[in-house]
Every structure is written in structure tokens, then in C-alpha cells.
Amino acid sequence: MKILILRFSSIGDIVLTSPVVRCIKTQFPEHQIHFATKANFKNLLIRNPYIDKIHCLDNDISTLISELKAEKFDLILDLHRNLRTRIIRTKLRVKTYAFDKLNLEKWMMVNLKINMLPYEHIVDRYLYTALELKVQNDRKGLDYFIDPNCSISEFNLPQSYHVYALGAQHSTKKLPLHKQIELLQNINHPVVLIGGKEDEAAGLALAEVAPNAINLCGQLSIDQSALLMQGSAKVYTHDTGMMHIAAALKKPIVSIWGNTIPEFGMGPYYGKHPLSEENLILEVSYLRCRPCSKIGYNECPKGHFKCMEMQDFTSLKN
Questions:
Q1: pLDDT at residue 277, rounded to an integer
Q2: CB 3.0 to 4.6 Å from 217: which of 46, 176, 177, 195, for a disulfide?
Q3: Is the pLDDT of residue 274 over 80?
Q4: Does the pLDDT value for residue 276 go beyond 90?
């Protein structure tokens, strides 16, 4: 059987599909697995030994559709379920299973604060799409494959360190700068700061006031950031793709939650790995305004940003 998996973005969501790919290929190695994603996310998948072929979406969906039609797939697993994937499914006319995004349940939680969300991770909902194949969750967690040629030897790092991934796609998912300073003040270890170009200013500001901070924001590729986390003792992160890469690397994680909630099914996922017991979730869970979005905003819609301003890091001291 030739199977097409659709997931166009983003970093964390693509990493979260890895158990589906692995479980199908290891349990049914005769199946061919193709994966369609955006071109700028190809490097997340190119070293995955369980994927036979990657198809990339640039700007022209028609070109991608023509490429996919030529493959003559037997089955599509739509792990994105948006307008583009619907167009592809319609054009290919192949039997399809799409995962449940729980849009109604999320809307009720965000707008009415009525919790009808199932107590299950998005990984399980992704795997439900492969039920017809009789695929079982192997409970080995997520996969992330670092380029073996990747190196961080040029950075003068201490022998033991923690990592703080300080970025996030939306401002309401990340701590404001003064709370980031407070976080670092409660960590009694050297902390390497990682983030994209957009986090460079914050990294520089933190390194100026926090003597335990080593700023590498804007200086690393995704694989270098992953390699750095792999060598760390612990990872601190917001609700971001770096959190899921850290979970794939089986690192102890302190995840800090603002306007979103782990109950959406996107918390750190370890399968049955014992490090899941060391995972610490920091959230101001009693706020009536939370969650205010299933994704995030550029600023707090209430104006007070209590979900981050009220975070307490004193329990982290050790």
C-alpha cells in the first residue's frame, strides 16, 4: 500500500506526527509512506528513516497536486485538515481519513469555559486515522532525527547546563521580559538561551542582567538547537515547537503555559518513557479568562496578562 500523509506546518505539529509514521512503517514495513509538507519544513523530515519520499508545497498547490496524482496513492491520512488538504483530497479522489481537530470542543472551552475536551493527546488523535490499518501506538514517544554532521563545538559551553527556549509564535504564549529575568533568577545553573532572529534582542537583554545566561539566540539552526537541548540537563520552554523537539529527545521539561492549556492535547509527549514523570507544567490554572485562544494573540485581550504575570518560579530552585 502507498500512503500519503499530509501535514504542512508547523515545527511542533510535524514532530507530533512522527509516531504515526514510525508505527505504520515498523508494524507494516511493506507499506510505502510519503509525506507532504511545506518546503521550509522539509529538513524536519529528510532524515526520518520511516519516510520513503517527501513532497513539498511551495506556493503553487497545482504543481504539488500533479506530483501527488502521479504517485497513485491507495490511502491519504490528513493530519492537517485545512482548506489546502481538502483541495488535495478532492483532486486525488483517494480514500482518506482525517484527524479530528476538535474545533467545536475547543470553541466551547475558549468561549464558554465548558470543558468537553477528551482526555487524550493529539498524538492519539493522529493515530486514530490509521485505525483501518490496525496500527497500534508503540508508546515510544516522538521522533526527531538530528543531522549527524551538525555541531555546536564552536560554542564554549559549560559541562553541565540547562536550556531556555524563550521564543513563541504568539506573544501571549511567552513570558514578558521581566518574567523571563525572574525565571532565570530561580535557576541555579548555567542557562543557554535559544531562539530565532526575532528573539535576539530579548536574549541580549537577558544576558546583560542574568549572570547565569549564555545567549545563543539567532545563532543556531533548528538542528543545532536540538543538539544543544540533547546535551542539556533540563529544558525550559513555552508552548512551542521546541517543547516537542525536547520531548522527542526525552529531556526533562519545564513547560510554561500562558493563554493556551495542555488540555488541548498538545502537552509534552513521551509515550511510556519514565522521564514523563519529571515533566513540570507551570500554569495559572485558576484564571477564569484562560484559555482565551486555542492559538494565541499579539497581546492579552484583557490587558492584564495575568496568565504570565502571575507565574511563580520559586519551586524551581534547587
A1: 65
A2: 195
A3: no
A4: no
Give pLDDT, residue 313.
96
Q: Same structural domain for residues 116 and 11?
A: yes
pLDDT given for residue 110 in this prediction: 97
Domain hosting 192: range is: 162-312
pLDDT digit string (tens) for 251-270? 999 999 999 999 999 999 99
* CATH number of the domain bearing residue 42: 3.40.50.2000
Question: What residues contact residue 3 under an 8 Å CB cut-off, 6+ apart?
Answer: 24, 31, 32, 33, 34, 73, 74, 75, 76, 77
Domain boundary among 92, 114, 133: 133
